[in-house]
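Moderator note: this is an archived Q&A kept for reference. The question asked for a predicted structure of one protein chain; the sequence and the answer are reproduced below.
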Amino acid sequence: MSICPKNKSSKARRDKRRANWKMNSMNLVKCPKCGELMMPHQVCKACGSYNKKEIINMD
C-alpha cells in the first residue's frame, strides 16, 4: 500500500515544491593549453589535451 495524503495539496503548495527543478547553464573553463572554453574534467575538443598533456592527436 502506498501513502495516501489526508488532505488535497493546493496548486501553490505543489508548485513551490517544483520551483527548484530548473536547468543550469553549463560550467565552462578555459583550456590551459589553447585558451578555448571547454567543460571541466573533459578532453579539450579544440587541441585534444587534458591536464596540459596531449591525449588526442589533432592534425
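Archived answer notes: Residues 8 and 14 are 10 Å apart (CA to CA).
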